[in-house]
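**User:**
Make up any protein.

**Assistant:**
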Amino acid sequence: MIIKRQDFSYHLPEDLIAQHPAEQRDASRLLLLDGSTGDVRHDIFSHLPELLSPNDCLVVNNSRVIPARLLGSRKDSGAAVEVLLLRRLAPDRWETIVRPGRKVRVGHELAFIPGRLEGRVDEVLENGNRIVSFQFSGLWETVLDEAGQMPLPPYIHEQLDDPERYQTVYATRDGSAAAPTAGLHFTPELMDKLRQRGIRIAELTLHVGLGTFRPVQCDDIRDHLMHEEYYELPEDAVRSIQAARQAGGRVVAVGTTSCRVLESVARSGPLAAGSGWTDIFIYPGFCFKVVDRLITNFHLPESTLIMLVSAFAGREHVLAAYEEAIRQRYRFFSFGDAMLVSRKEP
């Protein structure tokens, strides 16, 4: 049976695309979707502790966005070049997206901060990405902080006054090219309230690459290839999840990234600590083994992310909830409002 890309489309008025974060993180709106019935309710994110139960386990992605957007020029022509860092292959080598790609070929040398940060294109991959070797003086992290910019999504057209608003408050592990945006709604005070209510908080890491957001271009979505992303699931996170289960609590994944790590690891057996690369693609028909509830933002039409949520709660229920959110003028995408979704029972 063909699963059509167009079946995950919807019309979004452009003025509902959030161009900046909410003034206070946890003041965002929260749409509650019951995946079994399709019932929708409306709330506020700061009420999350009361919407969860003691002994639930909240699983968050602690990856931190790096200033992965480098603006420079070709040494030979002076033509402007933009390099987006995707995956670190060695201390001085990265897989990247280079724009304009057609004019940057193997052997071309690039300058970002002359004499301090320069690069050379070593290889062009089948998907058009470039392998770039960098030459830099000093610590890489220091140079990158000096030269790089925050890689905001292309649908955000306004400048971000405070780059920390594109980081979660619990982000500690550098490595993402985009924020795990469901976590942007949390504040330290809200995290404290969750703990005080007896809700466990488990941290894992998935460094978000842009492959997650790559448009699905195949008519049959099963032909879409996901980009690999690096993850780490620590032992203490597994213990917290197991303790919640034993106490009758639910596993609540914050974001599609946390969900993908847990379900990727569980594909091969009981949940266990480990690290590696995942290219899991979750779409309707997928059997969830770990996640009971999902906190997520509103996603682009025909994206792998709306397909994941549709697998979790049913495509018809999700699209109906999106239409209700549009009617109620929720804010969409990275800086927008959130959903708390209960899994559709088999």
User: Anything to note?
Assistant: The CA atoms of residues 49 and 193 lie 7 Å apart. The chain is about 20% helix and 30% strand. The chain has two domains: 5-65+162-342, 69-149.
